[in-house]
Amino acid sequence: MSTMFLAVEPALGVLIEGNVVPFFFALGFFLIVYMMITRGRAGMPVPELRKLPGIEAIDEAIGRATEMGRPVLFQPGQGDLRNPQSIASFPVLAYASTMCARYDVRIIQVHRDPPIMAIGEEITRVSYLEAGRPDAFNPDDVRPAMGQTMTVQSAIMGILQREKAGAVILWGAFWAEAMGIIEAGAMAGAIQIGATANTHQIPFFIAGCDYALMGEEMYAASAYLSKNPVLVGTIVGQDLAKLAVIIAVALGIILSTATGGTDHFLTSLLQL
Description:
Elements: H1 20-41, H2 53-68, E1 72-77, H3 84-103, E2 107-111, H4 114-130, E3 142-144, H5 149-163, E4 167-173, H6 178-187, E5 191-196, H7 202-208, E6 211-214, H8 221-226, H9 229-258, H10 265-270
Parallel strand pairs: 1-2, 1-4, 2-3, 4-5, 5-6
């Protein structure tokens, strides 16, 4: 009889061998995040998020566009609502729209996905309403650019050249079209802020944009901008868990080197 169907004796009576440490790590991660959220809600001290120049530069970019009398262009990438990068762009759009409403500067959005376009239009409409300037919102500045990535690239490049945007904010999932958009923004003389978690495009954002956020930095933007204790506590809890993993990896490397590659207590522990 094949041994693949033999019963496995669970560790601690409930956990399959090899899942004990991951279970307690996940439990510890949950407790850390919960503790940080609770402290934030109670007004107790919580470690501050480090400054992200790319997020702080949003005010600078919008201010420069205002001084130049030029609009701001916001593009949330080419992903749809299933892409978390697209969702991460919404808080940034809300913040940028509020600042544009205060400074009386146009914000042009270019969308590839119809549902995201509808959400983006409503976000901007509400931002202008909350800023006390609902009459300044222009729905014609929320523009579609449907089709393949290069079609979207051509549309955005044309808008940048015609409108002479003073600031460009690229926040979301980008592919091969990114560099063409960035080049068009540079030719228009815009200050550019780029954020994406697509690793194959991060180098182009770093090389072409004035400010770039790499990977998960873009997901921390909502917590950084809102200072919401729940969001801040979640980010801090994640960072503490990552620190624990880094320490475990460093300790494992040291022990493996010292023991000549033989098993030690850490490898035995991880096998539980």
